[in-house]
Write a structure and sequence with these properties.
The chain is α/β, with parallel strands linked by helices and 193 residues long. It is built from 9 helices and 7 strands. The chain has one domain: Rossmann fold. α2 crosses α3 and α3 packs antiparallel against α5. Adenosine-5'-diphosphate binds next to α1, α6 and α9.
Length: 193
Amino acid sequence: MIVGLTGGIGSGKTTVLNFFKAFQNISVYIADEEAKNLMNSSPLLKSQLINAFGKELFVDNTLQRAYLSNLVFKDPKKLQILNEIVHPQVAKHFSEFVALNAHKAYILYENAILFETQNNQFCDCILTVSAPLEDRISRIIHRDQTTRRAVLDRMQHQFPEEKKRLQSNYLIQNTSLPALKEEVYRIHNILTL
Ligand code: ADP
């Protein structure tokens, strides 16, 4: 079973994911991290990326993520090219991971842009983390040492929360950390009944 975990920036996805990591009988796949690992390790991906975006993308054999983000952030065409290069490789890697972990109670698949990338279609069940907008903004300003303007800019590139909510099976309300942890344990218990 594949359980999707998503939510807007600052909703508390990573916090929820970290609570789930305590469970030994599940496997966790973090889409963004795996994509980054693949971009750094796959010779095929590397050469395709350099062809598309230039050799400045790698310094000392390491992907310059901030540089890449800046390149594609305000250029939908470049973002599309990036997705066309990276997504098939990540999809292949994920399906191999699913096969290898089929014996687990479930696979928790974390993807901040699960719906935006249409990866919701691979999930049996989807959990969306939700928090009040002002809490999300202030937590991100604090976490990333950034400005309100920059946070709002990043939020604009994601689907609005109500659209995610409509397509989710369950909404995890992120109020307090103890309540959030309790909720994660409750969900895990139900998923493994
Ligand atoms: P996301 O992964 O969805 O962007 P995070 O899990 O990183 O969000 O949470 C954003 C920030 O807010 C982090 O610094 C996290 O520690 C903090 N945070 C998350 N949930 C709470 C909460 N309930 N109370 C206080 N701080 C929180």
